[in-house]
Structures
1.
Amino acid sequence: MSDKIINFDHVTFSYPDTESPAVKDLSFSIEKGSWTALIGHNGSGKSTVSKLINGLLAPDDLEKSTITVDGVKLAADTVWDIREKVGIVFQNPDNQFVGATVSDDVAFGLENRAVPREEMVKIVAQAVADVGMADYAGAEPSSLSGGQKQRVAIAGILAVKPKVMILDESTSMLDPEGKQQILDLVRRVKEENDLTVISITHDLDEAALADQVLVMDDGVLIDQGIPREIFAKVDLMEKIGLDIPFVYRLKQLLSGKGIQIPETVTSEEELVKSLCQLNLKM
Amino acid sequence: MSKIIIGRYLPGSTFVYRVDPRAKLLTTFYFIIMIFLATNWQGYLAITIFGLAAVVATGLKAKVFWDGVKPMIWLILFTALMQTFFMAGGTTYWHWWIFTLSSEGIINGIYVFLRFSLIILVSTVMTVTTKPLEIADAMEWILKPLKLFKVNVGMISLVISIALRFVPTLFDQTVKIMNAQRSRGADFNDGGLIKRAKSVVPMLVPLFIDSLEVALDLSTAMESRGYKGSEGRTRYRILTWSKVDLVPLFYCIILTILMVTTRML
């Protein structure tokens, strides 16, 4: 139990005035320090899960559903303790920028926690520098790109030192370059701060970075495993309407032509290498 | 378009920019009160010199201040002319029907003109050298005593600062919606007043829906970052008095002495 940071046990949640629950009897656990991708198409309930983790939404029946974050069971009186442990980077870079400038925004979470100002100044400067935005500390959000705003959102989370960082479609509104930079940054700060990362996404290239993939469809967890295993289930991916990463698609098409590529090949470079070796053997 | 400047702040580096926004706001109010203490030409001379000194101290071009006065110039001239032609006293130079041109009238017209122009000039000094956010902070400080009457000043200031922060965002959104409507044949520039007003409706509806969405997203983000209401929060951005703030203080003291002495002449 100790190495599991998040635990869902038979969690059911319905939005008001809807007939079927958005999340049905969901049970899973996430290991401390891991990177988990939660995938599924729009409306599969994956974003609802992120809001359940930090108590922005509460399960229908707290008696039957149990959510535990870092040993704390979610209940009305523990919700603020849990929010201390979980930071979420949301989808829209603009709609989560609260402060008037970069520094002000990073300080927002600290202000809420009543951190004394002298400490706050140090923490903010450090967090802004950590995400490579030191040159923009005084900048106003309207002068920043989407990717830069997401960096600031990450800095705001690092400043309050949570245990878990959730990326809720955080890269879906960014251009490919901005997306790559954010993912690189997340990978770096995850190691430096010993974070557990949960990325909620329908972009399987992003999911490929994870240690573990959870597949959701219609509020139910339909599969889980390491990315390589999950992406190999091409029919499943197509059934729930997700685009398989290029390497896996190519491997599948090649096997249709009778060319087998080893299971261990997961990146474009490895695929090129493997194809070249194949060429040598012919 | 996204780099829209709210208010009329112009970047600069003279000491006026370094004066604490609270000092600037208070001095501006105080100056306006002092204007009404002037009753004779010595008083008006003194206050005009002080007003122009503030303008010169900003180090900005005269055009900036002219732009401030320009929209009001007809109103100022109209009021000044009313004073000139309707007020009798002293030597009468000309009289026709209800109009009188007298020495008192001319002097009063000039006084009214100066009063109006000075009020606009000093407010312009304040608005062009102070960022809207600083003005909001200064207002919060001035409103602080209202806490005694259970007014939630912290929340008001958060509301103002978020509103200021989202002006450019909503402006961008407006431009986007306008372009989307234009590309489908909407015309915002032609036709009479009613037609133009009507063409704004299909723009306002999506903008309104959009801003509700922004508000919902923002409240979710704020809550997940631990916002529990404005009680028990600390402040990152604070205003600190510095030596520069002695300048407006002495400015006010000397101005008061001058205005009081000229009244006694």
2.
Amino acid sequence: MSKSARAPGASSKRLAEDGGASPLSHSLHSLSLQHSSPSKPARSPAVADPSSDICPVCKSSRYLNPNMRFLVNPECYHKMCESCVDRIFSHGPAPCPIAGCKRTLRKAKFRRQTFEDLKVEREVDIRRRVARAMNKQESDFETLKDYNDYLETVEEITWNLILKIDVENTERRLRLWEETQKAERDPNAPRRLAEPDPSLPSDTSHVVLKKGATQRKALAASSGNTPDPFGTSDDADKDAGFVFHGLKKYVPPEPEKPFNPFGGWGIEPKYYVFQKDYDVDWLTRQKNDPGHLVGGYDMQDFYSRCLREAFGGLGIFIEDEIIARENQASGDAGVGTRSAATAAAGGKDVDMSDVF
Amino acid sequence: MTFSPVLSPRPNPPGTKMATNATAAKAKALAILNNSRAVPSPSVASTPGDGGLDLAEQMNDEVRRRFVSGTRLGEGTYAIVYSGHYRHDPSKLVAIKKIKLNADFKDGIAMDAIREIKFLSELSHPNIIQLHAVFSTKDQNISLVLEHLPLGDLEMLWKNHSISYGGADIKSWANMLCQAVWFCHENYVLHRDIKGNNLLISADGTVKLADFGLARSFADPGRDMTCNVITRFYRPPELLLGCRHYGGCVDVWSTGCVIAELAIREFFLPSETDIQQLSVICDVFGIPTEETWPGVSKLRHYEASFGAAAPKHPHGINYWKQRFPLLGEDGIDLLRGMLRMDPMKRLSATQVLQHPYWTNAPRPTKKENLPKQGGGEKTMGEDLKRRGGEIETGRLDKVARKLDFGAMKK
């Protein structure tokens, strides 16, 4: 990180010690809205300024037009009235009409401001954008220290962008980071060339109004099936934008097993082979009795039950079971669902192996 | 009796952890066996040295002392249900169902209780209510210690219109229900009272089949069974026609009705009387003939019911598609398979689970994501106190309830 990026952190610490008037807010003032029109000096947010009711572009005032609404564009945060936006930007992107501001604005990006103070508005936008890219949690790191280091880096990036320090480089690394993260989560997703987010303020943002043929070709080449020279070979030689110590490798969740309608339970006879039919004299009458057939009484159920009951006790050693039961007498009892049930009910598992 | 799921040809639970784990109900039976063996000398068994209690009473006392019964959750003509917990760990909740002394069974235990104890102590499956223990109290009342299932039942769920659910949720509930039925049948137990309010929901959302008061094991050939079982809305046509020999297919019909009910959020085949029930069924499925159901005209009540009736034809596929949009094509196919008039053509519980409906999209909702409601302990009490086969909405029910002075007091 650049040295200057540390400055706000340090100054904020000093601020906390002083507990009072802010050198930080002063620096913010001077830095963040350096393009404000000379005709409109930076206002103190606390004071209700009558000039806020006059559009700096068309000079119409709320007195003449009571329904006037002001809009800002996150590109440069210059305020203007709705009718000016309609008039200037309806036919596509156009440069900002405020004197001294050369940025190209688009109508779609205009919105009402949420905060009265435009500096706050801008900082919230930046923080939102950084938080979208840097979204790791404490559980993603090996140690708490690693996580704290990460948080510090994130704060550094944020202040770099807010204070317009090393913006270009920071932006580039942020985009690279976003791309690698996305590739890691979803390896099958088509690789897109990182495009600059037009909603973000960047000093050098050079807006291309229409993609030229060469650009389109380049885009297609990199996003298509052709393997890009250093992309797919992954992390080792690729610049991920940022490197965080102690960041756990992302493990994709196991794919779900196909649903088993029997819940995993099954039965097959071990000691006998089940036949479709058994020819015994004493059953022939019932077998051919219409009274049995009409009600769905199934002879096979009877056969299999007889066999099951005849062979059911084979291979059962009660002594072994008693020993096994005593061994796990204090252990976890029961079927998973039940333990989950009681856990959900706020209770502990019911140990049912010790009825006596 | 078999205790080892490892070696037993009984259905083996998934995973191996169950292998070493004798389940409670079985453990209870085992413990009796074990205890009587472990008791060192015949002196204890024969000489009632401590307070004139014989061995059986001592054992009973020991079981009884393991549980603390709490507030009364509900009372019916058949049983009173209390909430309770293990004495050594109050966080282990149970429901204690105390069977009332019945005038019909002065010298014994009520049939319902016997059946319930008999089958619940045999069956151990995540979708069947668990019987932790059984004990009797001083006044000769028998108490069943059952699993604590606080989240209401399936009928309350579809009746509660503040809950919305979709096809995947229905599939999940239906699958748990079908697994329970399959497991019963696999162990040769007919439940004979499957209905929405016998399907309780545990704290984690699992559906559990409860109330085995009408259950019996599959009959031997030639033995008559009663046809006066299963709550009317869920009673299959062969029982309404007085058939004495039936199999697992009666439960499959009831299961189909419950699934249909879940899908349309109202009773599928409601009626006032048994005779009306038959005509309600025939309105949907047509009047059975010798072609559609071989042998049906020999059934006891066939002549009385359909002797002079004009033929009715079953509804076509469009009726089902219109009425059950939530089930989808394959769900409707399964439902129609479960609700065939001829029990021989009806799917068996195993065939039901083998149907492609379960594995087709949408995948059944995981039970932790199922919509839930707080039915609370109150409904658990209401559900457990009921006697098998009762419908609560009848006019006469109300009259009977007025005569129940215990209920008046509360």
3.
Amino acid sequence: MKWPLIAYFLIGTVVIVIAGALAIPFVYESQTLWYKLGSDKTVLRAGQLVGLLALASLLIQILLGARGSLLQETFGVVALMAWHKANGILLCCLAVLHVVLVLVPEGLANLPLGTKNWPEMVGGVLLLVIFSQAISSLFRQQIGFIYKQWRTVHRTLGYVALCLAAVHVLFVADSFAQGVPRRALLAILVTVFVVVLAVKFAPFMGKLRDKR
Amino acid sequence: MKRLSVVSLALLYVIVGVQPVLAAVRSWEMDKAHSNFYFEVEHIYSKIRGQFNEYTGEVRFDPNNLAESKFLFKIETASVDTKIAKRDKHLQSADFFDAGKYPQMTFESTKITATGNGVYEVLGKFTVKGEEYQLRLPLKFSGVKDHPAVKGKEVVGFNGKVTIDRLAYKVGGGKFFDLGVVGKDVEIFVSIEALAEK
């Protein structure tokens, strides 16, 4: 398969963003990491890295799902749908792995429950949303979900997941409390939001132009 | 009929016999909004303060009947509060209180002695992480008076401070102390207000 130059630019951008995200737990180490020693520290840092990969995967998933004309023309609808499916499964696995890795160092008998730990609870809801998205998509026919209804729910929950992820990451980790990571994440979230809005409103704008 | 009389007499004996003891030592209900178990511990150079938000207490006190007086406190270790949720979670972990495995710390007095100037030395069993230790808790009896805000009730007050070595109670294995991060001496400040009907 021969891709146009723009494809390499898009893939390169994604790779750079992911590499930058993976540097955060090292460059902007959270205070939670300060107080973990030995294997606990390694496991927690691995959990944070996996969490950031899951966030990147979620952002990619939203963009793949939105299927903007640039992506369609560059990669084709079939490839985008296949990647959307594969990335969804990957996202679900990363989310589960993230939860396990960040909870183990603190002890599984010491789960961050209750209003005091609300950012972690938001993460818990996010995990449920991601998990239900994956299951309902993979087994839609077996469950007996009508396609149109499923698509509406799937899209809505996709955007809900993005909002939950933004809140979870911005408030759960002090690495994102201020500075470059916070500003970079907000910039990426706004970019994705604008891209999705542009894709969704493009047909209406086209109709408006035609009427004029 | 004869058996009934014997039972009635026995019951009467129990009631009459026990009554003077119950009347002698008043039972006080802890005012949880105005009582607490505070602590302070060193973190490198600074002092970190915290408290336990969930606990129950039993206060029976009469300065003239110390033998029948009693203090019993049950503190929920998961309710530790230092105003930073992540630090609290760390304190609840196996690195410190191991709250999942040991949800409660208890203190039950075994002997109360007056040491003068309104101070009472309360000797008791202090159970931490499933192990029992002897602890002397000096409590300053602040007095008893009509509650200024609650009609028909009296209020009693106690305040006390004790410093303990947390490592002696296995609250932490010593790794954070060895690193020079968290001190081993913990100052505990007990402040109690308890209410009873007049």
4.
Amino acid sequence: MLQKKICMLGAYAVGKTSLVSRYVTSMFSEKYLSTVGVKIDKKTVEYGGETVMLMLWDIYGEDSMQKVQMSYLKGASGYLLVADATRRETLDKAVALHERAGEVAGNVPFLLVVNKSDLVTQIEIDDTALRPLIDSGWTVLRGSAKTGEGVEEAFSTLTGRLVGG
Amino acid sequence: MADTPRIVLDYLAALVVETRSPAWIRTDDGGRVTGWGGDTAAYRLSSLAEGEPAGLVLPAIEGLLPHSGGPLRLPAVELNSSQFVDVHVFGESEQSWVLLTDATLETTQQAMLQQRLNEVNLVRGWHVRAADDQISRLDASGLVGELPAFSEEGERLEVAAAQIRFTVSLPAAPELASDDLVPLGRILRAIAEAATNESGYVTSVTQGSLSVLFGVLPAGATPQTHAVRAVLAAAEAFRTLECENATMAAGIASGFVSAGIVQVAGSRVFLVSGDCVRVARRLASNAGPGRLLMDEATRRDAGDPAAGSVSVDGAFSLSFS
């Protein structure tokens, strides 16, 4: 069985833990509990006839006081950047984390999930903000850990890149 | 450390063993287990077996072995539920070593601080956005010298927001006498009393409505239960006042709000911001006379008071949006 390590990266409170929880257990909670350190969840999936064990590294969110330690990314097969659609600054943080992640993990597959897209009246990350990233080749998905929209698609898209090369 | 006496080093080693429950795993150049020791039981590593890939036993080291280069440290890895461990990986010729040291205590303490810090930062962000929103709507000529200054302290609260709307027919302005306002005062007082008796926090009062938050002040039941009870009590009080041509309607919505003290032009104001406040207002507007509309979350969490349609002497009934 293939094993693939996927890291979740993003600013604090963007919903990294909620996305993992939605994907692994189909559950969602409105309560915000900050992550400290890293929590590793596993999920076994079938992709293109292969059984793949995904090791999902839910890493604490970065804030002004605490940078994410990039040693967590050693050995990662890919990573998922997460931004909060209602907080514009979290997109900038995702871009900055991507640059630092590349130095440790190398040129591995990644994609950006713009989470909390169900909060339509509070959206700050609009298509204009995402256009330059898409134009430069990023895969960007809007999603919501609360409704489940885009969550399966995000992880399966990334898995496809890890397995398919 | 070369000048550190042996006795000090021995003490440090004993201290680590006593407080950190160190455990180690040795692997070959293929990442397969060749040995282990220390307090592996503390980490429930019971399935260790020679020749097995170490990553199978300890997911935290998947992809890290064989290790070359300087030592690698992965702090605060949640190994089992609520157990945190620092993972250290270092290499020596053709074998790698994985050392685990318990970090549960300091990680748990850090988690509490981090939670508070992140919540304050979130609230601060919401306040900044609320201020931007308010200021963008201000008429520049009407600006006071002192701009709003937001306190950095704030909280994220789960509340039930109630909006109670009422109408009283009053004579037109030229004929309006002070006695005509007595019923209005009685209604306001009765509703406010009903709300505060249920630990409600009245956030605004206008001529035709009251906004009340439940969940801000300490209370015994859920915010939703108190909110529904308060509206029913207000309806009962409203009925006993027997004001002619007076009507009452209400809306309750639940959710998270950010709340904090705001300083505006020298005054300290308790500011609450959240979607449920707006939703409650909208529900109250849409509720017909004698009706309470509530959202799904309120209905779910209110318990018995909202278990079905409740009628107060035929004058007030519950319905669900």
